[in-house]
Write a sequence for this structure.
């Protein structure tokens, strides 16, 4: 070998050694003859281990027939270029490689071996696979997924975006995002881009966009910044969900609620008007009956008149209650507060009720102290009468009704306890709502489900509370509070 030849092969060796690709040569029987440092790195065998061994050490068993085909081609003098296949490392891990194989010939032109250049394309393959998977996900999404530059030019447009907005991808890409923004909302874009430039994500922003055919679409928008490999924000990705259906359902719901409200108002108006109109004739009937009662003072017919008077009183109570409900509905239940002693009022009420009770007793625990309150005495009287008459009504033949009232740290607590039929647990909350009556045994007593509703509203308007504790078959205790005069 002359000097020139020696120099050339030294240079070649240096190139082979520093190549990033594995460069291997082998004989036609597969015996490895050279193995550069990249081959050591890619396949995990040192040159010492590999040289002299068979090339099959890096070929997975199932791919051994492939090697026979390669050798056949090489023997025919063919070159194999960029052949992608799988090889096996010393540690057993499979790697994807791209091979270029050329025959090595002797001075007579006879093929005596092969040289292989192998490039590890595992990473490349993986990122291609990931890319394909991501693209498939983006395309199968039910949301429109769009990306754009910071100037608003569209850079990608998935299948759902095509369907939602009516522009095919090739028409939308390169256009400005304003093609889908209604003119009156164009200002939103600047705000969105401003957020994106500052690295802020926009989450579930509900807005309206417009399709190619002019149809307005209610969407929920999520916009996130897109960064390049240096971490610089270069654009934005938008995910748009069509919420037109949801928006339509919400619109319908609001419409029905409004309609329901109107109907409810009609009903309340009617109730207010009817009870108001009933009051005048009732008053006239009552005064006429009283005149008749007076005229027939000694006659035995007076009993019938008195029976009728009782019924008129019941009717008057009902009409008054209905009127109260109407007033509560429109927030116009008048409360005229004065300072008075609740203890005195309590005794008066109990005395009056006692006169109408045959045999039943109401026991009121007497206190020495005054119970000064700042309240509407006739409304509080209404509450006490309601609860007391219930206590008597719902405890037929029961023991005494026990009433107590005491000052508890600035508020007066009134309790009315009966030994009656009791109230099921599941009804305890509801009995204070309008027209609610407990089913079963309680419904055999006459009533309208109004009294406790009005009572609790009166108490609420005084800044107090009303509640009940009850045991079926044992009785109930109704409580209410009103602020003491000092506190009020
Ligand atoms: P009404 O007594 O006219 O039906 P209320 O509004 O006064 O209307 O009472 C609502 C319901 O609460 C009654 O229908 C009854 O079922 C129940 N209730 C009220 N007070 C008592 C009580 N002391 N004992 C048992 N049940 C009661």
């Amino acid at each position: 070998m002359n000097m020139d030849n020696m120099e050339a092969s030294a240079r070649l060796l240096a190139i082979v050694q520093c190549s990033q690709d594995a460069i291997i040569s082998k004989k036609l029987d597969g015996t490895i003859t050279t193995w550069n440092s990249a081959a050591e790195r890619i396949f995990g065998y040192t040159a010492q281990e590999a040289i002299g061994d068979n090339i099959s050490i890096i070929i997975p068993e199932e791919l051994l027939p492939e090697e026979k085909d390669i050798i056949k081609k090489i023997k025919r003098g063919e070159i194999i270029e960029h052949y992608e296949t799988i090889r096996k490392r010393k540690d057993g891990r499979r790697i994807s490689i791209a091979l270029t194989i050329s025959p090595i010939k002797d001075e007579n032109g006879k093929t005596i071996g092969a040289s292989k250049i192998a490039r590890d394309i595992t990473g490349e393959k993986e990122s291609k696979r990931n890319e394909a998977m991501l693209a498939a996900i983006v395309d199968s999404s039910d949301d429109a997924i769009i990306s754009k530059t910071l100037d608003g030019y569209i850079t990608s447009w998935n299948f759902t975006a095509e369907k939602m907005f009516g522009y095919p991808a090739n028409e939308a890409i390169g256009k400005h995002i304003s093609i889908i923004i209604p003119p009156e909302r164009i200002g939103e874009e600047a705000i969105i881009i401003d957020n994106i430039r500052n690295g802020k994500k926009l989450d579930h922003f509900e807005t309206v966009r417009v399709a190619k055919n002019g149809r307005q679409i209610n969407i929920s928008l999520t916009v996130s910044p897109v960064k390049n490999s240096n971490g610089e924000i270069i654009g934005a990705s938008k995910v748009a969900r069509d919420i037109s259906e949801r928006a339509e359902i919400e619109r319908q719901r609001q419409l029905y609620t409004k309609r329901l409200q109107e109907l409810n108002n009609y009903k309340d108006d009617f109730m207010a008007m009817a009870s108001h109109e009933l009051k005048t004739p009732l008053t006239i009937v009552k005064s006429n009956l009283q005149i008749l009662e007076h005229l027939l003072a000694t006659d035995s017919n007076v009993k019938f008149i008195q029976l009728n008077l009782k019924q008129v009183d019941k009717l008057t109570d009902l009409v008054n209650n209905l009127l109260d409900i109407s007033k509560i509905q429109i927030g116009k239940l008048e409360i005229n507060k004065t300072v008075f002693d609740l203890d005195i009022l309590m005794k008066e009420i109990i005395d009056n009720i006692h006169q109408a009770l045959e045999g039943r007793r109401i026991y009121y625990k007497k206190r020495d102290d005054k119970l000064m309150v700042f309240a509407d005495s006739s409304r509080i009287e209404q509450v006490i009468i309601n609860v007391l008459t219930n206590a008597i009504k719902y405890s037929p033949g029961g023991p005494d009704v026990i009433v107590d009232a005491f000052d508890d740290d600035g508020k007066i607590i009134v309790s009315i306890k009966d030994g009656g039929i009791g109230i099921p647990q599941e009804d305890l909350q509801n009995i204070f709502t309008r027209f609610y009556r407990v089913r079963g045994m309680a419904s055999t007593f006459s009533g309208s489900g109004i009294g406790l509703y009005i009572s609790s509203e009166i108490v609420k308007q005084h800044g107090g509370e009303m509640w009940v504790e009850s045991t079926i078959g044992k009785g109930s205790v109704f409580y209410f509070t009103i602020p003491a005069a000092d506190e009020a």
Observations:
- Residues 40 and 46 are 5 Å apart (CA to CA).
